[in-house]
Amino acid sequence: MTAPGDLLHRFLFERLPVRGHLVRLDASWRAAIEHHSYPEPVAAALGEAMAASALMAGALKFEGRLSLPVQGPGPVRLMLAQCTHRHAIRGVARHDALPPGAPAADGLFGDGQLAVTIEQDEGGERYQGVVPLVTARLADCLEQYFERSEQLPSRLVLAAGPDRAAGLLLQRVALGEAGSESERAEADDAWRRLGLLAATLAPKELADLPCHELLRRLFPEDDIRLFEGMPVFFQCTCSRERVAGILQALGGPEVYSLLEERGDVEVRCEFCNRAWRFDAVDVAGLFSPGSTQPAPPGLH
Ligand SMILES: [Zn+2]
After folding, report:
1. Over the stretch 206-246, which tens digit does the pLDDT of each residue have?
2. More reliable by pLDDT, 182 or 194
3. Do residues 146 and 269 share a domain?
4. From ligand 1's centre to the CA of 251, what distance in Å?
């Protein structure tokens, strides 16, 4: 039996200063890839990034949107996974043709880098931490991010196939000043033990086992409290206003020449494939003296 998907679960170890999150993306993941024909390694990397973005949205406190952009000189020039604090996710990858044969995962991005950005609602801080892609595994890079930027030792396991993307995140909680030396040594040992066990999790188990069973099999010696799953769903934030801003940033001459060529201007959202159409009257409105200032170009 396959565990239900599109849920993010929180759990904690009753007797250890360790907590975690477990996520499975089904419909939300398929919605992100259905209009793209990503090569298998690209889809796998994007699925892992989307599962990771949901885990991080569960683990970090913010109100707004968390983004995981990966950029590099490899065949995948840009990959972006996003998740809001309400667990609305989306993701996209821009890639060139992959080299012939099955390219190794570490060939996808080259010497790239992964960033973690959090845009708070209500104009709050935009936070960015950057980690180099030192290994092919996105999970390793994110573990480094947590260690360096959040001072939160973490273990991350990610897996993605055509129908499901899944992830497990373990985090060590600080003992605080009150912890004695022996308590710290015990917590260190336990953390090492849990890390070794987490590393044995097979992708199929991570994707398919019901949450209770997965945690029980992986950590048979530990009491774990598993909380009810929170829904995760695909939702795009594209809008007519945002597309209008992109066209304004492109400039009048460029947009009018597109209009002349095709009769109207259509912009298709890379995330959700929705087509935004602007006819001659709309375009004239975009470049009339009273129109609003262009938004910065890029992925919105
Ligand atoms: Zn969209």
Report:
1. 999 999 999 999 999 999 999 999 999 999 989 999 999 99
2. 194
3. no
4. 22
Based on the fold, state whether residues 250 and 226 are members of the same structural domain.
no
> Residue 43, exposed/middle/buried by CB under 10 A (0-12, 13-18, 19+)?
buried
Q: What is the pLDDT of residues 49-86, one digit of tens each?
A: 999 999 999 999 999 999 999 998 889 999 999 999 99
CA of 100 to the centre of ligand 1 (A): 31
- pLDDT at position 102 is 56
145-186 pLDDT, tens digit per residue, is 998 888 889 999 999 999 999 999 999 998 777 778 888 899
Q: Which of 91, 169, 85 is nearest to 122 (CA)?
A: 85
How many domains does the chain contain in total? Answer: 2
The single-letter code of the amino acid at 33 is I
- Tell whether 80 and 175 lie within a shared domain: yes
CA 117 to ligand 1 centroid distance, Å:
20
70 alpha carbon – ligand 1 mean position (Å):
19
CA–centroid distance, 271 to ligand 1, in Å, is 5
User: From the CA of 236, how far away is ligand 1's center (Å)?
Assistant: 5
CB atoms within 5 A of ion ligand 1 belong to 236, 238, 269, 271-272, 274
Q: Model pTM?
A: 0.89
Output the CA 237–ligand 1 centroid distance in Å. Answer: 6
Span from the CA of 164 to the centroid of ligand 1 (angstroms)? 21
Structural contact between residues 239 and 271, judged by C-beta atoms closer than 8 angstroms: no
Classified as helix, coil or strand, 172 is: strand
In this predicted structure, what is the pLDDT of residue 2?
Answer: 67
Same domain for 165 and 269?
no
Q: Is residue 89 part of a domain?
A: yes
Separation of 269 CA from ligand 1 center, angstroms?
A: 5
Of 174, 208, 234, the one marking the end of a domain is 234
Tokens of 229: 């799953």
164 is a domain residue: yes
Type of residue at 126:
R
The helices-and-strands tally (H runs, E runs) of the chain is 9, 14
